[in-house]
Design goal:
Layout: E1 5-13, H1 18-28, E2 36-43, E3 49-56, H2 59-66, E4 73-80, H3 83-92
Amino acid sequence: MEDKKLYMVIERFRPGKIKALYQRFEERGRMMPEGVTYINSWINEEVTVCYQVMEAASLEKLNEWISNWNDMVDFEIVPVITSVQAKAKVFSI
């Protein structure tokens, strides 16, 4: 089995789509495929950008989830590691 990786997902809500986005979420939930796990999210005060941490078995699986939302949101994906993993990486160099 493949190790899961963490991704910082920066979602920029498209103008005029925010209410529809929240309605879809209310009706269908996150619509995540198997192999993708929601960790947590934070939204700016203007409710225009969401910063979300997701865990996924692969970038392909994460892209499968994104395809459910990319008509309302522009996505930026940043692979990340935990601070514990970063410290271990620094001291193993």
